[in-house]
Design goal:
CATH architecture: Alpha-Beta Barrel
Number of helices: 11
Radius of gyration: 18 Å
Helix content: 25-40%
CATH topology: TIM Barrel
Structural class: alpha/beta
CATH superfamily: Aldolase class I
Order of helices and strands: HEHHEEEHEHEHEHHEHEHEH
Strand content: 5-15%
Distance between the termini: 38 Å
Shape: globular
Strand order of the largest sheet: 1-2-5-6-7-8-9-10
Length: about 290
């Protein structure tokens, strides 16, 4: 299908190149680059970036994602290596160089590590808070295999927002997220919100073949799990190996879903064709 005008984005080349140099100097990855986000030019020009920790190779193989996939350690570990002990310090140094006041940390999924990398997440949060005492930190985590202990270790580090995306409706999980589990993701969100200390956030994509009733049901599930922040965006095929786009959703439909989500009790809702989970994260954090 032809790409409609409402999902096209511009890329200010100079700002992108400058920030990429800084990131490469620090040996850091961003999900903006790895996932080929359409908003990269705009975010990099601010500057703003969602840092991707624990390497650039994932143990899972989601149909919507362009991040390189490697097999788990038990299967031979293609491209997977040990975590870098100095990554938290390098991350904090880059955030200071970029003069960031709000930092988003996400990661690949590392099922080959005992705690799924939860302690590494926690170390990154602590390093940022130590280097930049006034910084706000949002973590966008994998499901850690459903481990309560892993989740609690991340929350104990004191992030300001906890984010975990369900990505799509449960019916499509076998194709879109074959190694994930919808109910497990809801349980992660429910446990994160149980303490009531920080806002809990989630998001999903449209355009993969979901039905209107399924979308509303996911929104209701997320709200029931304690989410107060929600992002809804259009799925865009990042590579020829990824799932094809089933449908381009018109902007008016995103507006309708935003209104419906606010009526359900979400305090902050970003809904639009180019919305991504970490896009304008600081602005939406201020809403809650």
């Amino acid at each position: 299908m032809r790409l409609p005008e409402w999902v096209k984005a511009s890329y200010p080349s100079s700002s992108v190149l400058e920030l990429k140099k800084l990131l490469r100097k620090g040996g850091l990855h961003t999900v903006c680059e790895e996932a080929r986000c359409p908003n990269m030019g705009r975010c990099f020009s601010r500057p703003s970036a969602a840092f991707m920790i624990m390497g650039a190779v994932c143990t899972r193989n989601c149909g919507f994602c362009s991040v390189e996939s490697g097999r788990s350690a038990a299967g031979g570990a293609a491209g997977l290596g040990p975590l870098s002990d100095d990554e938290p310090a390098r991350l904090a140094a880059a955030a200071r160089a970029m003069a960031l006041k709000y930092v988003v940390i996400t990661s690949v999924t590392r099922d080959d590590i005992e705690d799924g990398g939860a302690s590494h997440f926690a170390n990154c949060v602590r390093a940022l808070k130590s280097e930049l005492p006034a910084v706000k930190v949002e973590v966008l985590t994998p499901d850690f295999g459903g481990s309560r202990k892993a989740l609690e270790s991340v929350l104990a580090a004191g992030p300001d927002v906890f984010n975990h995306n369900v990505e799509t409706v449960p019916r499509l999980y076998p194709v879109v997220r074959p190694q994930a589990d919808y109910e497990r993701s809801l349980k992660i969100l429910e446990r994160a919100s149980a303490g009531g200390g920080i806002p809990v956030k989630s998001g999903f994509m449209l355009g993969l073949g979901e039905r209107p009733g399924e979308v509303m049901a996911v929104m209701e599930d997320l709200r029931a799990s304690g989410c107060v922040m929600l992002t809804i965006g259009q799925y865009l095929r990042p590579s020829s190996k990824s799932l094809p786009v089933f449908e381009y959703i018109r902007p008016e439909r995103f507006d309708e879903l935003r209104i419906a989500a606010l009526a359900m009790g979400f305090k902050s809702v970003a809904s639009g064709p180019l919305v991504r989970s970490s896009m304008n994260a600081e602005e939406y954090y201020r809403h809650v």
